[in-house]
Amino acid sequence: MGFLDIDRVTKSFGGLKVLHETDISVEEGEFLVLVGPSGCGKSTLLNMIAGLEEVSSGQIVINGRSMNGVKPADRNIAMVFQSYALYPNMTVRGNISFGMEMHGIPKKEREKKIAEVAELLQISQLLDRKPGQLSGGQRQRVAMGRALTRDPDVFLFDEPLSNLDAKLRVDMRTEIKKLHQKLGTTIVYVTHDQIEALTLSTRIAVMYGGYVQQIGTPQEIYDNPANLFVAGFMGSPSMNLFPARIVSANGAPAAEISLSDGRSAVLPFAGRDGTGEEGREITLGIRPEAITEPDGADRKSRAVHVVDSRVEITEPAGSDIFVVTQMGGKDVTARFSADVPVKPGEDFQFAINMEKAVAFDPKTEARII
Amino acid sequence: MPAPTANAVTARTGEPSATGATRAGIHWPRVALYVILGLFCIYYLLPLYVMLVNSLKPLSEITAGGMMALPGEWTIAPWQSAWSTAQVGVEATGLRPYFINSLLMVVPAVAITTVIGALNGYVLTKWRFRGATLVFGLLLFGCFIPFQMVLIPMARMLGLMGIAGTVTGLVFVHMVYGIGFSTLYFRNYYAAFPDELVRAAQIDGAGFFTIFWRILLPSSGPIAVVCIIWLFTNIWNDFLFGASFSDFDSQPMTVALNNLVQSSTGVKEYNVHFAGAIMAALPTLFVYIVAGRYFVRGLMSGSVKG
Amino acid sequence: MAISDTVRHRGAADRLRDLLPKLVLSPSVALVGIFVYGFILFTLYLSFTDSRILPSFGWVGWQNYGFLFRIRAWDTALTNLVIFGTLYIVICCLLGLLLAIFLDQRIRAEGFIRTIYLYPMALSFIVTGVAWKWFLDPGIGVEAVVRGWGFESFTFDWIKDSDMAIYTIVIAAVWQTSGFVMAMFLAGLRGIDSEMLRAAEIDGASTMALYRRIVIPQLRPAFMSAFVVLAHMAIKSYDLVIALTNGGPGTATEVPATFMYSYTFTRNQMGIGASSAVIMMLTIAAIIVPYLWSELREKK
User: Fold this and answer.
1) ipTM
2) pLDDT reported for residue B4
3) Architecture of the domain spanning C71-299
4) Is B86 domain-assigned?
C-alpha cells in the first residue's frame, strides 16, 4: 500500500473505455508524472484522483482513505490547472484566500497563510492585482500559491506549463522542482511533454490508448523502454528505430543491418548468449547519443562497433552536431561533437554503442532484447 | 440562436470596401451612396418626426392639413391631456395609471425571469446531464409558439390561480414565456465560461450556489444587461397578453394606448394620440439610445422578437 | 450505531448535492411543461370539441376544422397572410441586404446611421401602428398634406381601401423590421474574410461580380436566420394589425392571429378559435423546429 493508491481503476464514457484497468501505487513524497499524447487517458486519471470525475470501477485511496464518493473539496488535494483557472473577478489575494474561506478558516489565519505563501512564491507585491493584470508566469505562481495554502496530501498538476513560452517554461520547471524538494509533498503531474516528465519526476507513468505502457524511474524509462511506443515517445531527438535481423556471431546474438551502399553490418548485442532466434526480423532501437564519431564513443562500453556510412544531412546544434545517415533503409540520427569535420555527401565512420541498443518485435511492438 | 454576434457590427467599422473610393476629387458614386443613405434616414425618422411635431401643436393645425409642418403654435396641452385627462376606455384618467401598471408589470417580470434564466444557463452548461440539450430545446421552443395557442387555457389557469385580471397575473405570464429567452442568453454566455474555473472552485470547496454567486455571477454583467434589455423591451411592448389577461384597472400601457386611439366616441384628438404614442415608446426608446449596443446584441443572439 | 447513522446522513446530503442542479432547473421545466406543452395539448383537444363561450368537452372530431375552412374571414386571413408574409419577407430582405451593403462601404458616421435604421425595432407595434395609422389616413396624413401642397387630385387612401389596406400593413411592418434585417446582414458581411475579398479583387472581379458571386452566397446563414425570424413574426403578427387597421376595413385585413382572437373571445366560437390556433402553431412549427434542430445539433 502506498500513500496514493490507484487500485484497479477504469473509466468509461458510455460504451467507450477511455482508461483500462490501471494500478499505480505512489509513495509519500514522490513526484509522479503521467505522460502521453493527447487522448491517452492521463487527464481523465488525474480528474478521477481530484474527484472531478467518478471512477467507473476500482478505487482511489489517499492516505489510507478510500475516495469513492468523496467530493473534491474533502479529499485534501490541491490542483493547478492548465489555464490556471484564476477567478477573474477576485484579486490575487482573493484567489488564494477563497479555498481557505470555503473551508471556514478564520480571517486571521488566512492572512497569515497568504503572506507565507506569497513570500515563498515571491508574489507579495501582486496580492492586490486582478488576474487580468498579470503575466503568464505570475498567473502560474498565483495558481500554485492557491494550491499551496491547502497543505494538501497530494498536489495535482494538469499541464501547468503548456501555456507558457519556451523560456518561461524552463524557468517554471525548475521552480516546481525546487518547490517539491522544499515541501516534500506528493505530486501527480500530467503533461504531454516528455522532457518535462524526465526532468521533473521521480517516477514516470507513460500512457497511451488508455493503458499505462510503462511505469518506472526516468532512467529506467529512458534506458529500458518496455515497448516500441515508450521508446519512440520518450527522448529528444527520439530514438532511432529501424529494421534489422537477428544473426549469430561467435555464438552470441547480433543485429544485422543493411547500410546505404548495399553492404550490411553485423552488430553483436553486448553481454548476451546464444538465443536460437537467428533470422528473426526485429526493430532495432538506438538513441542518437549512442551513435557517435569513433573518438566520442563511450570508453566504458565494451561493445562499440564502427561502421562506414554516407552522411546525408548535418544539423549543427551548438555543442553537438546531429548527423543523419541511412541504416536499415531509414533515416538515422547520430550525435557528434560539434568540432568533428563532417560534411554531407561524404562517407564517415559511425561508432555504435551496442550496450545501449534495444530490440522490439515489429508486430507486437514488445521489447525482445 | 444563430446569428453572428453584434460585436462584429459594432467593432469593425473600417472594413474593406469593394468599391475603391479614391481620396482626391468628388467621387460621384460615393455622393450618390450618401444621398441614398440619407434618404433612408429620413424614411426611418419620418414617423417619429410626425408623432413629435403633431403632439406639440393644436388639433386644428393637424386637421387643416399641416401634418408635416412644424407647429405654428407650440403647446404641451396634448401631452398633459394624454398623461392625465384623456378618456381611456370609460374613465378620463389619462395614460398615467396604465404607465404605472406597465412599470409594475415589467420590473418584477424582468427581475424574476433574468434570475431564473441565469440559474438555468448555469445548470445547463456547468452541470450538464444527459438530455440537457433536449431540455434546452424544449424550453427554447416555448418562446416561438404562437401565443394564440395558450390564450384559452391560460385565461382559465389565471382564474384558478386567483390572479386573473391583475398585474400579478401579467407578471406571471411574461415570466413563463420569457424563461426560454433568458435561459438562451445565459446558456450561450456561460458555455464560453471556462469549465476549469468551476473545477478549481469545486476543489476549493465551493458548492453549487457559492460557485454561481462568487465565480460566475460577478462575470455576468454584460449578458445580464443584454437579457434585461431584451426582456424589458419585449414585455413593455407586449400587447396580446395585456389585451387578453387584464381588466380595466390592470391594463398595461400598450393596451391603454390602443384604447385611446381606437375609441370611437367624440372628436379624434390626433395630437393627444401622438403624445400618448411617444409616452408608450419613451422607456424602450430611452433604453435603446442609452444601451443600444446591448440591445442589438440581444436582438442578434435572440434573433426573434416575441 | 452512531457511525452508520452519520454515514447514512452524509449519503443523503450527498444525494441532495448531486440532485441540486436538476432541482434548480425543475421549476422552469415544470412551468414550461404545463404552460407551453400542456396548454398546447389542451388547445389541441379543444379544437376537437364543441366549445363555444367556455371550454366544453363534447367531442366533435374534425368538425371545427371543416367549419374553419368554409368561413370567408379565415379564407381572407390566410390570403392576407400569404400576401403580407411574402411581401414582408422579400422586401425586408432586399432592403436589409441593400442597406447592409451600402453601409459596408466605409461610411462615415456608420454607427449613427445604423442607430437610426434600427430604432423602430425598439418600439411597440402599437406605437408603430398609431404613427402609421394617422400618417396614412387620407383625412390628415400624406394625402391631405400633398393636396395641401397644391396637388389637388393626389390620392393615397390605401388604408381605407379594402383591396389595398393589407399593403399598408406591409409598409409599416417593413419600416419597423428592415433595420434589424440590415443589422443581421451587416454582421454577416463583416464575418466574411477580408483577405478573400482582396484576393477576388486581384483576380479582377468587378464590384458587382464580387457581391453576386462571392459575398452574397456566403450570406446564406444570415438569409436563413432572417427568413426564420421574419416568417415567424409574420405568422404571429397581431398587434400591428390591431393598431393600424383593426382588421378593417370590414374584414379586409384579417390575419390568422386576429381571426383567432375574435372567434374565441368576441364571437364565442372557442372550438373554431382553437382550431385556427392549431393551424398557426403547425405553420410556425414547420419553420422553427427544423431550424432549432439544426442549431442545437451544430452546437454539440
Assistant:
1) 0.85
2) 35
3) Orthogonal Bundle (1.10)
4) no
Main-chain dihedrals φ then ψ at residue A153, nearest 5 degrees: -65, -40
In degrees, rounded to 5, the angle at the alpha carbon of residue B229 between the alpha carbons of residues B282 and B188 is 160
**Is residue A71 less than 8 Å (CB to CB) from chain C?**
yes
Touching subunits of C (3+ CB pairs, under 8 Å) are A, B
Locate A255 and state its grid cell. 543485429
**What interhelical angle do C165-190 and C125-135 show, nearest 10?**
130
Q: In angstroms, rounded to a whole number, what is the distance separating the alpha carbons of residues A287 and A233?
A: 12
Distance from CA of A93 to the nearest CA of B (A): 14
In a domain, B277, yes or no: no
Residues of B in contact with A98 (CB under 8 A): 201, 204, 206, 214
Q: Which of residues 246-275 of C touch A (CB under 8 A)?
A: none
Residue at B243 is within a domain: yes
Q: Say yes or no to pLDDT of B237 above 60.
A: yes
**What is d(CA A282, CA A255) in angstroms, rounded to the nearest whole number?**
8
DSSP structural state of residue A37: S
Please report the domains of chain A, with CATH numbers, ordered by start residue: 4-233 (3.40.50.300), 240-360 (2.40.50.140)
Average the pLDDT over each of B34-38, B52-56, C15-19 and give the range with the smallest value.
C15-19
- Interchain contact C281–B (C-beta under 8 A): yes
CB atoms within 10 A of CB A300: 8
Nearest chain B Cα distance for residue A155, angstroms: 12
CB pairs A-B closer than 8 Å? 58
- Quote the radius of gyration of chain C (alpha carbons, Å): 26
The CATH number of the domain holding residue B111 is 1.10.3720.10
Q: How far apart are CA C256 and CA C279, in angstroms?
A: 9
Per-residue confidence band for C1, with pLDDT thresholds at 50, 70 and 90: very low
Residue A297, CA distances (Å) to A79, A205, A240, C27 in order: 45, 31, 17, 76
Residue type, A52: L
Q: How far is C11 from chain A (nearest CA, A)?
A: 9
**Domain ranges in chain C?**
71-299
Q: What is the nearest CA distance from B58 to chain A, expressed in angstroms?
A: 56
| CA–CA distance, B61 with A81 (Å, rounded to integer) | 73
**Number of structural domains chain B divides into:** 1
The predicted structure's pLDDT at residue B235: 93
C14 interface with A at CB cutoff 8 Å: yes
